[in-house]
Amino acid sequence: MAKKTTKKKVVKKVAKKKVAKTISKKSLKNAAGKTAVGSKNKAGKRDQDTSVKLTKMAQSIVTAVHSDKEPEMDVPIRAASNTNWNAKKGILEMGDSVGTRQLFNLGQARKFMQTLLHGKSVDELLVADKTLSLRGMFYKSLHTIEGTKEKTFDDQTESDGILEDLEVSLGSLREELHIFAKKRGTMVGNITVVDNGDEINCKKMGSGGYAIPSICEPEVIQFKDVKAKFILHVEKDTVWQRFNEDRFWEKHNCILTEGSGQPTRGVRRMLHRLNKEHGLPVYCLLDCDPWGHYIYSVIKQGSISLAFESSRLAIPDAKYLGIRSIDFERCGLSDDVKIELNDRDIKRAKQIASYPWFEKNKQWQKEIKQMLNNGFKMEVESLITKDISYVTEEYVPARLKAKDWLG
Amino acid sequence: MAKTTAPKKTKRTKADAESMASKQRDISVSEFFAKNRHLLGFDNPRKALLTTVKEAVDNALDACEEASILPEIEVKIEEVTAPTHASKPGRYIVTITDNGPGIVRKQVENIFGRLLYGSKFHRLKMSRGQQGIGISAAGMYGLMTTGKPMIITTRPKKNKPAHHLELAMDTTKNKPEVTVDIETDDFPDGTGTRVAIEMEAKFFRGKGSVETYLEQTAISNPHCSITFIPPDKANENPDLAESNESVEADEQGILRTQEFSDRIVYPRTVDELPPETEEIKPHPYGVELGTFLTMLNKTEEKQLSGFFRKEFCRVPPSTVKEVTAAASTKGNSYSGSTWVKTVESKDAEKIYKALQEAKLRSPPTDCLSPIGVKQMLAGLLKGVKAEFYTASTRKPSVYRGNPFQIEAAIAFGGELPGDQQARVIRYANRVPLLHQQSACSSFKSVIDTSWKNYGMQQPRGGVPVGPLVVMIHMASVWVPFTSESKDAIADYDEIRKEMSLALQECGRKLGQYIRRRQRMKRDAQKRDVFERYIGEISRACNYLTGTDTQELYDALLAQAKARTEIADAQLDDEGNFIKDSAGNLAKADDVIILDSIDSSNTTKGAVAEAKPIVKKKRVSKASGKSTSKKRTSKKSSKKAAAGLFGA
Predict the structure, then answer these.
(1) A171: number of Cβ within 10 Å
(2) Which class would CATH give A25-180?
(3) What band does B10 get if pLDDT is binned at 50, 70 and 90?
(4) Is A139 a catalytic residue?
(5) Which CATH class is domain B29-266?
(6) Any CB–CB contact under 8 A between A28 and chain B?
(7) Which of B268, B265, B204 is nearest to B237 (CA)?
(8) Residues A55, B544: contact at Cβ < 8 Å?
(9) ipTM for the complex?
């Protein structure tokens, strides 16, 4: 027994040292917070709110433990079951279901620990007034747990999920946590953007285009000189290149964007702001397959995992130009462009058709049914079989002229 | 057809009754044996060695117990000539020495020199040997294969010289011939007997060997101490070893079988002799008609009432009245007072039938001497390195008028191999049965038990697979063997049923233990997980709120411990108990659980584990300490706790 107590004492001493160290950090942080308030008023205030939220979260755990309750935290559930379709607003909204994340639950213990680690990292970012990428956050909170061979995070995917959890449970946006995602998506067109004070004329972006940043909040991005009349959003870079080379945006006075597949929050925020602030209609040119359909769905009414941000991201009046399932016959395409639907595609298509926001849309029910009847899918590039510039010179202009789209 | 196939007429020498009579003569039992030695377990040189040891040891144990002496037996096998070829037998001298009561000089020849001579055949009493063939048959086998007489040294009285005899048997006369008869002092102090037989044999180890037999005998007879000197050790130390002194308890405080350079010692772990068994009279249900008639002829009683009272058990006067009335006809009326001599054989048959149908009480069961739960546990503990032991003794029961009692015991885990079939060790009246396993009722009952219910794997129609030893013992005044070589118990419904019940009793406890162990493992893993993260959490909280890291850590740790309390439990409720600090068994009932030496060792095989075990290490622990140090300190604290419990 005697042995045991001495050991404990040693441990305690070590721990106390640690406490001293971390407390100094804390005070440093407070000082930094104050200066932040002084220099950047709005952002500083927001940072402080976030910081308070983080402290609250940790404090509730400490209080629970010391009053002999088991620590837990509330994390709103990000799943289809907790996503409501708001037909009036035309967007997806997150429901009220809240899951509790418990430390003393074998399945949740690790996530519990990770959430707190990321909370700490975010707080450090706020203090330093710096931003980090998702990958950066992964490394920020990554270390081997003392006395084991276990790492705090196995990979970035695990870390990303935790950050989204942190967002919803704090009710703060990613930007407010000083985190940004990898840039994805390009833009070109008749518009000038002020990005962090730099004026960028999107008419003069060469063949590469302007990379849409991850954070498109008004503090960072302002619009100037919006001459374009609409936005054409295409699914991927390859198609975008075709339109850019043919200077489609110049001919039709529009903005041309692409999202490299499922558009990131940055791209969606950009489209949303242009749509809301400048009333530019958004037309989407996507593949004729369930994945293309779902990209449209996300742009239009928001995604399930980010339902809490739908009001800032969704564009309920976005239109779907094509590719349509009838295009195979309408455009007289050859059999070579057909890509057979596999089981996964069929399953996904049926799932999409049954989403409440598609369920009552007769046009879309018809479109999906038609695709399933065809038994094949088509990519935008399939139009190249007609002519290299068929899509830019004939297909899209014809659709726009005829106002032939799905809503 | 008939014509073509008609056999050739051969001239047959006519034998008449006279000429045949000239060839008809007595067959000596010994001669019969000489030609039919396989019936008694001398079919091949391997088995001959085992049978010899077995008969001698059985006799020695029986003699010691009857004389209330704690048996000490030494078995020595010396090689005289090595086998010239692997398929040929070698020549060995088998010497068995006991500390029994010795044998009176004039009986030596009868006991060792005549087949079918003994005290055990004529009575219904639970003893190891039954027919009285054994040891003399071994002597005869030796004589036949080597021509050397059997050497017997016995000292029936303390402080007097021992008798040294050399016996050869005349197979034609079933009579011994004494070739040497002297007195000698070359014998250990005290009473006892030593038999040495030189024979052609084959020495081997493993299944069905002398070593296995002795090992299993030691398990079922924890009150005896056996020293075994196999041929490869026989030359190391020719003197009789001071056997028990050098066997020491291992770190767990358990006396176990130990192998030395010159001998293997199976130590005594129980200091009480098994209770003395009573001899009983036959129960009518177990007597066949022929036997009944013989008894009627031979009885010294004059009247029927006396005959039933003296020759049988459980036949009250009311039953005598009943059965004699049943046999009565107009001419002959029978009653208890009828003279035995006047009973006609056809009426005797009627009486017998009535007796079989009469409602009789079961035979008395005080004639049985089960090994006992405590003794079985002690025996298994000595011979089998496991972590969990349980045993059960059923109440006596009766088959065909013979009382019997079934016992079962189980050892599980520990160092037993996890990927092999369970080992079944069978006993009848404490004697290990080594052959014909699949024909034996006890083996069948192991197969019939559904071990899956108790957390073991079991292929369909097979023995369970896993780190398991199953022991079954049948004690009876008359064990129904399937053959004379006494290797398998015959299949009687009553016996099978009792065996199944005994196995189920043990199985239930095993299941309880296995489930509990799994739960403990799961909880320990859980705690590991929690403890791993607690450090991180308390540091993050400290950063965010400024709370004291250590305080929070301790509070969380306490919660984690409370959540996973079972991992600390020492299996103390539900009939499971803890080993006390001295390593003795706490007020043991029927279960022993040892701290497994290394928990990772025990996970092989049967109990499937969800996750590999992560070694415990506290997050906040001073980093310099090694894992092994932690383990030992933990162990000592556990022991201390157990000590408190014991007090």
Answers:
(1) 12
(2) mainly alpha
(3) low
(4) yes
(5) alpha beta
(6) no
(7) B265
(8) yes
(9) 0.71
